[in-house]
């Protein structure tokens, strides 16, 4: 029986924006529907419309039925009896979604008291039970803590506890894991699974990440430009997608289990790049038309209606389904005419960046205004690596592991707190100010967020010319060259950043970094804030530029799939240390450190079949407090391998901090673990 | 918390001493109490004037450092010195502080409470008639100087009195002499005080209302779109309840800073109101003392004002701690 049924839902914002245009869906008890789409596709507006939480002045029409009762058009008073009781929602950002001034236990208790009229004490007790159910250790004590005292993953558990407090019949989860690390994402999805089993609720999981949905949803709906363009059982959608957009989305997805980074992804182009047709869709044609490789005349005639294309109610809104029978053939494989110039072996290439035993501790002060030093955050605590010409080294790890701090320390080009940074053979500690400025030309940076890292009051041309004027170089035709280099039009030079899409802005960011012809580019999560389809294009660009210009990249990322696609070598960081470093193929193929193994395990695969069969050992808990790293091995409190060791073996982990040592047959590979996974394999 | 407050207090004490000293030095260097004697009809002999001035530590022929030393020594005993006429400053100061507080407290509390509510309401009804009305009213009041506002109110009051034939409004002084001797006794005295308070309270409340409604409106607009208000509604709270319990509660936190510092400055800002309604409070006294060149009185008022502002600052710290758990726990900064 379907508990939540939405038919022909339309949401319009003033003045003339249609966010959702006639979407229908139905979810049964205990069923999980995944809604996938890129930003601006209308998926959040859909969820808020179902909840009746859209801002005033929004036009909503259609029908939303919860257990047969119509919700649309009801007053706030009537809806408030349904919201939080039968229909609950989990929001994306657990930091801002909880009221900062109330204890979490009270916030959950409030949810209970609103609907049941329970006594304060009873509601509190129930709140503690719920916190325990979602796996918050020491629930009775933690119920009195405030949201800012929880980590992101723990806050999201609180949100889930709040959502299931009154045994809802349906839960809407809007990007519940987007703001979280992969390891925490895996934990939260498990909690959501527990919540589903505890309440038997139907779940609508909204996400931009096809991989998250693959292992969790029963059915999937793909949204594009406010329409459901394809929907059906999860296996059908992933195995036999029929709408070109879905096919493109699946193909542009970087995968941890895909062919390895260098060169392998080169055959695949970003199939569906281009600005998503946003606010006002032209009437009477397929909205995907401008980006579609198999479009024909019929596509421009009318907006296609969904038609049945497969078993289990698999529908796709495409008129040219005959062309999409073989998904692999939809997007033409570009002829890679110019193979990347053969690189010399790693040993022979010059070292561009050398970092040894780099340390950066931030002092921590406690007390609001009574500032006394209470210790220091060991943000970067003895990190060493080198980057050679023409290669990409990726630093990966959970948030707070020190990867960005390490990058910023290198960028300072100054004497580090401890250790040594050498750029192009020059020790940064010994640089004169003039020499340092000269060296800055060779080291440039691209930041994560293209929306905030470009001055909104400067035109693109000025943004690109600024580094040149700073270093007293002639501008000439350089701006046009740079725009061409990153695949933008000369016309973009006159635009302001807000007139560009996210992908275009990031291209401007890259062009700015390239203006001075650097030899080393530091990239701080350059694709993390972009949609999957745009991501692929930017990564292609970065790969192409590296090959053409002989650049070296230091690439900071949290996304292991992205790293696999773009990097040659990878360094896995945990709590300010590099626990494993080596070539991408070897590290991903046979991880030596249990932490690397756990990170890789936590990444969901965009394949329902594989995802369901995977046997993973989830990482427990959050990373330890960086102000007080535990003695011995810093990873042992979360280490799945540590628990399986005997007393003698685990003593080593308790007492000795593991130093990096070489493993495997690659001389450049090392791991900081007393009981590495590969060594163990050799012993067997 | 106690240790933190003590330390804060010590910091503030240093600041108060600094502010008071600078105020004294400025007043002593710039004001000339001697001129008061020189204007007298039979001009007193020079030696008598000198002796008189020296007695009150007001003689500009004594080196500034020496006068300052004497003043500080007096202050250490809690003595602000004497006015040029030989009255003790302390007694007058406390009396006038009492008058000022009686005048200001009601208006300030009323004005800020109404301002916060109206600001919050205007934010919720953004762009609607109520919002436009509150916005218009507050801008109008902000644009009109207090003395114009007070005079306008007095005109309206006098018309009302004429029209009704009753003395509903009073706008001179704090009481009518002999009010409590009437048939109602002490009750009549109270009624008389209230009638005298009506107009000045309205003046002060309007000015405060205008200011706070603007602050609160912008604070509230920030939280209106906040995710946690949406969460509260998703829990099943109605829009109004969610906005009050979660929105307003959070939006009040930054307001404490405004509250504290504005009320610290209110004491001095009340001078126009005092003058216009004939209340003999601190503000009026400050102006009169400046014109009379009364160095010790000016320094005393400044000293009290500095202490008031900094005490208000401390009150705001405490309130912040009470309202905001993120500050209370002193988490990793």
TrEMBL record, chain B:
Q: Which source organism? A: Actinomadura litoris
Query: Which cell locations does it reside in?
Result: Cell membrane
Q: Topology in the membrane?
A: Multi-pass membrane protein
Entries under InterPro entries matching the protein: MetI-like, MetI-like_sf
Which keywords does this chain's UniProt record carry?
A: Cell membrane, Membrane, Transmembrane, Transmembrane helix, Transport
Q: Which residues cross the membrane?
A: 12-31, 103-124, 136-157, 197-215, 258-277, 297-320
Q: Report the family membership.
A: Belongs to the binding-protein-dependent transport system permease family.
The segment(s) forming the ABC transmembrane type-1 domain are: 97-316
GO cellular component assignments:
plasma membrane
Listed under GO biological process in this entry are: transmembrane transport
Q: Which Pfam families match?
A: BPD_transp_1
Question: What is this protein's record name?
Answer: ABC transporter permease subunit
Its main subcellular localisation, reduced to a broad class, is membrane
């Amino acid at each position: 029986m379907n508990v939540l049924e939405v038919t022909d839902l339309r949401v319009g914002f003033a003045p003339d924006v249609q966010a959702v245009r006639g979407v229908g869906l139905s979810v049964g008890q205990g069923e999980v529907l995944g809604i996938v789409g890129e930003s601006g596709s209308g998926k959040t507006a859909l969820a808020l419309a179902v909840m009746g939480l859209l801002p005033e002045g929004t036009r909503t029409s259609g029908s939303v039925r919860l257990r047969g009762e119509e919700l649309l058009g009801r007053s706030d008073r009537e809806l408030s009896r349904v919201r939080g009781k039968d229909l609950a929602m989990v929001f994306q950002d657990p930091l801002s979604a909880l009221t900062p001034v109330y204890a979490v236990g009270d916030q959950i208790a409030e949810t209970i008291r609103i609907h049941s009229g329970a006594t304060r004490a009873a509601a509190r007790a129930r709140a503690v039970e719920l916190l325990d159910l979602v796996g918050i250790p020491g629930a009775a004590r933690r119920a009195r803590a405030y949201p800012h005292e929880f980590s992101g993953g723990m806050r999201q558990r609180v949100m889930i506890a709040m959502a299931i407090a009154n045994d809802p019949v349906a839960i809407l989860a809007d990007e519940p894991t987007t703001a979280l690390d992969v390891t925490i994402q895996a934990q939260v999805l498990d909690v959501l699974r527990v919540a589903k089993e505890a309440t038997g609720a139907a779940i609508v999981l909204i996400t931009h990440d096809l991989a998250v949905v693959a292992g969790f949803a029963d059915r999937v709906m793909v949204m594009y430009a406010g329409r459901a363009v394809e929907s059906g059982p999860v296996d059908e959608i992933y195995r036999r997608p029929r709408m070109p957009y879905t096919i493109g989305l699946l193909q542009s997805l970087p995968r941890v289990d895909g062919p390895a980074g260098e060169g392998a992804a080169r055959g695949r182009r970003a199939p569906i790049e281009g600005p998503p047709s946003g606010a006002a869709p032209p009437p009477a044609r397929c909205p995907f038309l401008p980006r579609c490789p198999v479009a024909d005349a019929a596509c421009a005639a009318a907006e296609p209606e969904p038609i049945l294309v497969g078993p289990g109610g698999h529908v796709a809104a495409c008129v040219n389904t005959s062309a999409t029978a073989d998904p692999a053939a939809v997007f033409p494989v570009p002829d890679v005419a110019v193979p990347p110039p053969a690189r010399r072996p790693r040993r022979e290439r010059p070292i561009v960046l050398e970092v040894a035993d780099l340390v950066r501790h931030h002092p921590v002060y406690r007390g609001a205004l009574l500032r006394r030093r209470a210790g220091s955050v060991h943000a970067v605590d003895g990190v060493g690596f080198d980057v050679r010409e023409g290669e990409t080294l990726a630093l990966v790890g959970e948030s707070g592991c020190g990867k960005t701090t390490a990058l910023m320390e290198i960028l300072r080009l100054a004497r580090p707190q401890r250790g040594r940074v050498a750029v192009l053979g020059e020790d940064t500690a010994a640089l004169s100010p003039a020499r340092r400025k000269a060296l800055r030309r060779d080291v440039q940076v691209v930041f994560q967020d293209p929306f905030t890292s470009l001055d909104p009051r400067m035109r693109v041309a000025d943004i690109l010319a600024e580094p040149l004027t700073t270093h007293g170089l002639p501008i000439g035709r350089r701006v046009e060259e740079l725009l061409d280099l990153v695949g933008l039009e000369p016309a973009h030079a006159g635009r302001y950043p807000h007139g560009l899409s996210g992908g275009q802005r990031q291209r401007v960011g890259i062009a700015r970094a390239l203006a001075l012809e650097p030899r080393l580019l530091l990239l701080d999560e350059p694709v993390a804030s972009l949609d999957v389809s745009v991501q692929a294009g930017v990564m292609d660009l970065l790969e192409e530029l590296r090959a053409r210009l002989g650049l070296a990249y230091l690439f900071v990322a949290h996304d292991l799939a992205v790293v696999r696609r773009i990097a040659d070598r990878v360094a896995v960081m945990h709590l300010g240390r590099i626990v494993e470093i080596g070539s991408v193929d070897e590290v991903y193929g046979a991880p030596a450190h249990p932490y690397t193994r756990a990170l890789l395990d936590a990444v969901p695969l965009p394949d329902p079949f594989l995802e369901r069969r995977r046997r993973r050992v989830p990482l427990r808990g959050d990373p330890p407090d960086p102000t007080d790293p535990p003695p011995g091995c810093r990873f042992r409190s979360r280490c799945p391998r540590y628990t399986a060791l005997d007393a003698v073996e685990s003593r080593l982990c308790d007492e000795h901090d593991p130093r990096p040592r070489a493993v495997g047959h690659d001389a450049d590979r090392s791991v900081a673990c007393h009981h590495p996974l590969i060594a163990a394999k050799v012993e067997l | 918390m106690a240790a933190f407050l003590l330390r804060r207090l010590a910091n503030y004490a240093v600041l108060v001493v600094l502010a008071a000293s600078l105020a004294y030095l400025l007043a002593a260097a710039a004001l000339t109490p001697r001129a008061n004697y020189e204007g007298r009809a039979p001009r007193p002999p020079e030696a008598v004037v000198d002796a008189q001035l020296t007695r009150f530590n007001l003689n500009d022929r004594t080196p500034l450092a020496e006068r300052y030393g004497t003043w500080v020594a007096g202050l250490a005993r809690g003595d602000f010195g004497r006015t040029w006429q030989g009255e003790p400053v302390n007694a007058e100061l406390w009396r006038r502080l009492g008058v000022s507080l009686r005048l200001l407290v009601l208006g300030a509390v009323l004005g800020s409470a109404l301002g916060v509510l109206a600001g919050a309401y205007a934010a919720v009804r953004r762009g609607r008639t109520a919002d436009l009305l509150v916005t218009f009213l507050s801008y109008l009041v902000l644009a009109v100087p207090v003395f114009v506002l007070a005079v306008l109110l007095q005109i309206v009051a006098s018309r009302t009195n004429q029209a009704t034939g009753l003395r509903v409004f009073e706008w001179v002084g704090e009481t009518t002499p002999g009010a409590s001797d009437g048939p109602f006794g002490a009750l009549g005295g109270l009624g008389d005080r209230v009638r005298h308070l009506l107009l000045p309270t309205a003046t002060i409340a309007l000015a405060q209302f205008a200011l706070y409604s603007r602050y609160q409106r912008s604070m509230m607009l920030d939280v209106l779109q906040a995710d946690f208000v949406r969460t509260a509604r998703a829990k099943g709270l109605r829009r109004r309840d969610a906005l009050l319990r979660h929105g307003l509660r959070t939006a009040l936190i930054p307001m404490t800073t405004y509250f504290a510092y504005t009320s610290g400055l209110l004491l001095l800002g009340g001078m126009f109101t005092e003058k216009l309604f004939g209340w003999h409070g601190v503000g009026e006294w400050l102006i009169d003392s400046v014109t009379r060149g009364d160095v010790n009185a000016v320094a005393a008022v400044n000293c009290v004002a500095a202490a008031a502002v900094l005490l208000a600052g401390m009150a705001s710290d405490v309130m912040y701690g009470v309202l905001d758990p993120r500050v209370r726990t002193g988490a990793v900064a």
